[in-house]
Design goal:
three-stranded antiparallel β-sheet; about 30% helix; about 20% strand
Amino acid sequence: MKDIRRKVRRTQTIAPFGVGGILDLQGESFVAADIRSWGAHGDTVDSPRLARKLRVNGFRSAVVIPSGKAQYIARRGPVYVRFPRWLFCPKCRVMTYWHTDSEQRDKPPRCGRCSGAPQLAPMRFLQVCRNGHMSDVDWRRWAHSRPEEHDQRQCQVRSLKFIATPDSSGLDALKVSCITCGAQRTLEGIGHKNGLKQTGARCSGSQPWQKSEDEHDDCEETPRALQRGASNVYFPLVHSAIEIPTPSNSDEADEATRRVMENSLWAGLIDTGDSPVAEHIVKHLAETCDVSVEFVESLRQENFQPDAPAAHLVDTADDDLSIEEWSAFTSPESERNSTAEFRVRQIGLGELNEESTSLALLHHRIDRVIVADRIREVRVLEGFSRYESEGRERLVSVNPVTRAQWLPAVESYGEGIFISFDEASLKEWESSPDILRWVGGIEENLEASFQIERLREKTGPQLLPRFVMLHTLAHQFIRQLSFDSGYNVASLRERIYARSHPEGSRYPQQAGIFIYTAAGDSEGTLGGLVRQGMPPHLMETMVRLLESAQWCSQDPLCADSTGRSLANLNRAACHACALLPETCCEIGNTLLDRTVLIGDGKVEGFFRPVIQAAFEESADAVDAQ
């Protein structure tokens, strides 16, 4: 059997093992270093729209090393550094602070004291702060934080043991002990908010891969101990875009924009701001790239707006991506102007059976059905945060030393089903006072959530009832497709087009969902999902998913819930009925509610009339027999 213990798939270099992420492999623990470790290597990924949004010159993906060739090829991509450095022997329990000089190629660290040389295990806890810094816990300080004797208070030796006792199953059964002076302390209370602060520990102001003291920050944040596998150790900020055809009249402008933004002087121009030097750089760029000075200046103004708040910049950028994608799916010209990366066909639900009231009601609510035979998705990692996902304020860049000229990315090809819904039916349903009051409660929880900035990038300035309904429908659709088509749930992804816009905005209303495969392997390109979008399969799938949404094995607890998940951002949604793997959902399994989909005694769900008509038809069919 081949040794695959240290292999990472290309898609995993974006999430969950992108820059700053922790990778556990067969008892070893590593953290991904920043993009400076890539050097000049990496395969170019082309996505002009996403590059303009993120204000970088381009993207790179990790180089794929052929199977069996790793030992013959020099390092050409992401670097993973061993972390935590504090390890312990599972046999003698002696702790070791591991140094880089002790590393041996393709060999895990082992204990040199015990017979058989057992593999050393990483410590369970690590230290992070709200500014995104991460380091080892100072276990010597922890063990000596409650000294009983004078020798223990003066001891500076890092000779420690990690002892597990059978006294209980909690953290009080684990303790760190000093071999020299005998000082010891259990791990009880280490995860409390001020658990490390009480010992006098301070934030290191660095990341595990940073060796130079010049790169360390003077961080005043209070550090906190978290378990190595905790979900709040790493919050990656990942952007994605569906590559769509470029209008023919904009090809020339896009090419000129690319020449300017890929020039080595472009980053310096953005960094100079309103400095007098900017004028000279603009002129030089115009001459070098064979464009007008006015063209370069307009690009500079689009990418540098010091008086505009950050949230406004993010809102505008996201609008551009969603609007263009919506237009590409709904425009009749897209079918005629298909490319190798974007091929779509308008299908519809199929012929209407006049004898079926439920199917007629379903037809009335759906505007159009489009199958995408071929799509290309680009996913990009911009940075990460730790402890709390607080948006861009505390975002750690993939290059924390200088402004990133490029970002790590991955591209994948797949297929999908796009469904848009009747705007008139949606507006009539959304105008109901009961619906507005119900979704208003979720909106209040969203305003109080620490995830508000990240979620507002998807929902817009206001959470519309259609967003919650369509997001829940997308989750139910993915779950049903996994039964009807045999697709693995984790290989399907969603995109919700229901974003609100400020009053007076020139952007049109959107109401649609796009379910697609983009798993980077053959499963996403074999045509199975397109087949499920063809008549009569899609109609049958829609009816079945609405019927399954009627009940949950956790009911009535799930159906009557007034708040679930972090910050109570979900209502009637749980793992038994609506939640999906994190790779499927673009907003982290939040803002879900089956009630707005199928309704209850208090709220009229958007598809409630369809379900009631289907039940009546089923009852009539049984009586007829």
